[in-house]
Write a structure and sequence with these properties.
By secondary structure, this protein is an alpha+beta fold. It has 2 domains: about 5-165, Beta-Lactamase; about 170-214, no CATH class. It is about 40% helix and about 20% strand. The protein has a 6-stranded antiparallel beta sheet, sandwiched between helices. The chain is globular, with a radius of gyration of 18 Å. The protein starts with a helix and ends in an 11-residue tail after the last helix.
Length: about 210
């Protein structure tokens, strides 16, 4: 991918985010821009769900209606390639999935015609929040140069995700007004300032299941 193509993709992501589109729409827009110079067929984003203690496939582009990989799919952080990327904060690249597969779930991708893929971590302030994946029906579709550019694009997606799903700056996977902070001495000012905006979950100190968790 050229620098101009990278910049174009980042610009498209930024424009879509400004319009207030959903993550799925932003992913589709970015995917269209990236596909102009990079040979791949599918793109997806999986975000960590504390409720399930797993990754949830949140947005997809290029998967057919009969694909196993549909939004809402739960991906184990221990037994999936996406989970490995999430846990280790390192990318995975499979240039020839037939020879290189190491996870049972990769056989499902093979059955759907995927020949190569890459997955990169989405990291915010040192903590993994999810994984972005690209898959191709051809072998050897992803080079080291591709990974470098995709890392820049994934960093942009982190900003988008954080803006769409604001979290506490000190504790990941909580809302912007975090009950862990508001319950501490240092958070008393926050409580007083934002009392009317606190969710019922926050008022209870985080007890119970949240219904609005992604």
């Amino acid at each position: 991918m050229t620098a101009s193509a990278r910049d174009s993709a980042i610009l498209e992501i930024t424009r879509a985010a400004i319009r207030g589109d959903s993550l799925a729409e932003i992913l589709g827009t970015a995917s269209g821009a990236i596909k102009k110079t990079m040979p791949y067929d599918r793109m997806s984003i999986s975000l960590y769900s504390p409720e399930h203690r797993a990754l949830t496939l949140t947005a997809v582009d290029g998967q057919g209606p009969n694909s196993f990989y549909q939004p809402g799919l739960i991906l184990d952080t221990e037994g999936s390639p996406q989970g490995w990327v999430f846990q280790h904060q390192k990318p995975i690249v499979r240039q020839d999935l037939i020879r290189e597969r190491a996870f049972r779930l990769e056989q499902t991708s093979l059955d759907e015609g995927v020949k190569s893929y890459c997955a990169l971590p989405l990291i915010a302030k040192g903590e993994s929040i999810g994984v972005i994946s690209l898959a191709s029906y051809r072998k050897n579709s992803f080079s080291e140069a591709h990974l470098n550019v995709l890392q820049e694009i994934s960093d942009q997606f982190v900003l988008v995700i954080k803006s769409l799903m604001p979290t506490c700056p000190e504790h990941s996977f909580t809302r912007l007004i975090c009950p862990r902070c508001t319950g501490s001495g240092g958070g008393r000012t926050t409580v007083a300032k934002h009392k009317e905006r606190l969710s019922e979950w926050g008022k209870q100190g985080g007890r119970g299941r949240r219904k609005d968790q992604f």
